């Protein structure tokens, strides 16, 4: 019997990564503890479709920043046709790690994976928020910028 080489797991994370903050780095570092990290960066259009607002930082710039993070093996933009599961199929990860505040229904995601013959992919949600700092999310950072802007212009 041939001995199996210890092949690292492929761990997929996805998100907008609009205004990068320690919570994003925490998610990537936690994913790296589980295997090699592959990242799908949401397109501007997809982000607007699902969250109602366009990101502040353009998609190519967000992608470049994510690619430069130490524990990221590979990063790519989501598909222009917004079919995230096709991008998942291209990467073919062993595990999808969702952030604690990502608006994905795990059961819905798993059933979508099964329909695409990707039922072997495990899906987990990171339960821990990285809230060491007051501005621990992109939306809190944006809110603070708006408050400061209003104060300086009154």
Give the count of helical stretches.
Answer: 6
Share in β-strands: 15-25%
Shape: globular
Going by CATH, the architecture would be 3-Layer(aba) Sandwich
Major β-sheet profile? 5 strands, parallel
Supply Rg: 17 Å
The helix-and-strand class reads alpha/beta
Secondary-structure element pattern, one letter each: EHEHHEHEHEH
Distance between the termini: 76 Å
**How many domain units?**
1
CATH class: Alpha Beta
Assembly type of the chains comes to single chain
Low-pLDDT residue spans? none
Tell me the strand order in the biggest sheet.
3-2-1-4-5
Mean pLDDT: 90
Fraction of helical residues: 25-40%
CATH superfamily: HUPs
Number of strands: 5
Q: Might you state the CATH topology name?
A: Rossmann fold
Written account of the structure:
- The chain has 154 residues and is α/β, with parallel strands linked by helices.
- It has a single domain, classed as HUPs (Rossmann fold), CATH 3.40.50.
- 40% of the residues lie in helices and 17% in strands.
- The chain has helices at 22-32, 44-51, 59-67, 84-91, 106-115, 138-152; strands at residues 10-15, 36-41, 72-77, 95-98, 122-125.
- It has a five-stranded parallel β-sheet, with helices on both faces.
- It is globular, with a radius of gyration of 17 Å.
- The relative contact order is 0.18.
């Amino acid at each position: 019997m041939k001995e199996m080489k210890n092949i690292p797991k492929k761990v997929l994370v996805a998100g907008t990564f609009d205004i990068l903050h320690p919570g994003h780095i925490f998610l990537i570092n936690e994913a790296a503890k589980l295997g090699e990290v592959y990242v799908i960066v949401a397109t501007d259009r997809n982000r607007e479709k699902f969250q109602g607002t366009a990101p502040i930082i353009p998609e190519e710039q967000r992608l470049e920043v994510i690619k430069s993070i130490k524990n990221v093996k590979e990063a790519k933009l989501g598909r222009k046709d917004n079919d995230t599961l096709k991008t998942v199929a291209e990467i073919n990860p062993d595990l999808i790690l969702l952030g604690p505040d990502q608006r994905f229904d795990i059961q819905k995601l798993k059933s979508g994976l099964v329909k695409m013959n990707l039922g072997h992919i495990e899906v987990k949600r990171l339960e821990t928020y990285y809230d060491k700092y007051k501005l621990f999310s992109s939306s809190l950072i944006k809110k603070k910028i708006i408050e400061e802007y209003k104060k300086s212009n009154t």
